[in-house]
Amino acid sequence: MERILCFPLIFSAMIFSQCSKPQPENPGDPPGNGHGNGGGGGRQNGAPMPKGTPNGKVYSKKIGMAGGTIEYPGARLTINIPAGAVDQETEFFIQPITNTAPGGKGIAYRLQPEGVTFRKPATLKFRYTADDLQATFAAALGIATQKADGAWYGLGAIQNEAAKTLEVKTTHFSDWSFFEAISLEPGMSAADPGQQVPLVVKCVLPGDDDLLVPLTKEGQETALLDPKTHLDAKFIEKWTLLGTGQLASTGNSAKYTAPAKIPATNPVVVSVNVKSNGRAVGILIARVFVAPEGISVSIAGGDYTTYGNSGGRVTTGESFATAQQGGVTASVKWQGKTTGQFSWDATNILFLLNIGTTKTYAQVYNSGGKAVPSPGKLHVVETGNFGWMLGSFELEKSGYYIFSTPPTMGTTKINGYFRVKRLNIGTE
């Protein structure tokens, strides 16, 4: 029998690489924004972390001596219990929890019953997606478990890059997480034009000389370090800026200075090539979205005007960003998935700009008495993982209406960006 038990729902990396010994954070490290930044050094014997708290629906299934498979809905985690692992029918539970693992990605899982020791090892299979690899490389992903001392331990895993899976074996259940061993922080940030953004490469696994040592030996464990631990600069091959602005780098840290105006390519991308033993092992990526707070609009190729007093919300099935300033209101609304690329339509993907009571721009235009969606796209980059909702939009033929006598209608090109604070984080 399979059951789903409902709990409150909120949103919530294996090269078993080897990192430098923990270094103290320098004053130029990025400010905390949900990406594990902050001051202090790590501990070589592992960093005790708090226990995760329930963060979703509990899934359960009864499995007996014949063995069986438990797959949490969404297929992120699959557990295979081999025949003979238990000597009687046992009900197994998967509880999503908040992820406290150093370098943890997404939600973690509490597997129960915790006190049961299997006669044969169970196999845990974590699946990752292309989204998990946007800022890192597959060899930098791993699986860890939290022990009684509070520290998380990475286990030797089998990686299948073609299938995008990682597997480990275990004879007991506890808290488990998917994690990123090496990261460029902050992975995603927002900046005003001209603002400086500090960046640093971090690593949560200890080591000496060889960075890329996959710990695939079954049963081998490595305690994860404090998430503030820096990667030794000897493993950095080069820093690269893709986009407008300036990048000044020194070893494992860098500072990006945004251009004075909103760049044409946004977000800007900063990448770091990582090497070990004289060979390239992967690329880390950070993105910086450059725009003032609010909704910025360019009409017919003119300069951008930014409207403040802004905010945004994400609810079930619908998201929106709005701004209201000086008698002008601007809004963007979309339905379905929260991020990605959207085409304008008449009812679900909307743009509206009201210039007082005299002129209105919209995502549709009049053609023979019919409302026709403008060519162009809405690109939603982020919806609040670190407090901001970020995106851009273009309308090749935005319809406008001038309230005059007689009224005037026509079309024009509009480009824009939005960077607004999300007002309902954790409540959808």
State the main characteristics.
428 residues; mainly beta; Chondroitinase Ac, Chain A, domain 3; 2 domains; 11-stranded antiparallel sheet; 0% helix; globular
Please characterize this protein's 3D structure:
The chain is mainly beta. The protein is 0% helix and 50% strand. The protein has strands spanning 2-5, 58-63, 68-71, 77-81, 90-97, 108-112, 117-127, 141-146, 152-155, 158-160, 165-172, 175-180, 182-185, 188-191, 196-203, 221-223, 236-242, 246-250, 253-257, 268-276, 279-290, 294-299, 305-307, 310-315, 318-325, 328-335, 340-343, 350-355, 359-362, 364-367, 370-373, 377-383, 388-402, 408-421. The radius of gyration is 25 Å and the shape is globular. It starts with a strand and ends in a 7-residue tail after the last strand. Residues 1-18 and 20-43 have low confidence and may be disordered.
Q: What structural class results from the helix and strand content?
A: mainly beta
List low-confidence stretches: 1-18, 20-43
**What is the C-alpha radius of gyration, as a whole number of Å?**
25 Å
CATH topology of the largest domain: the name is Chondroitinase Ac, Chain A, domain 3
CATH architecture of the largest domain: Sandwich
Oligomer: single chain
The best one-word shape is globular
Cα separation of the termini: 30 Å
Number of domains: 2
Binned strand content: over 45%
Quantity of strands, as a count: 34
The number of helices is 0
Mean pLDDT: 86
What's the CATH first level of the largest domain? Answer: Mainly Beta
Fraction of residues in H or I helices: under 10%
Largest sheet: 11 strands, antiparallel
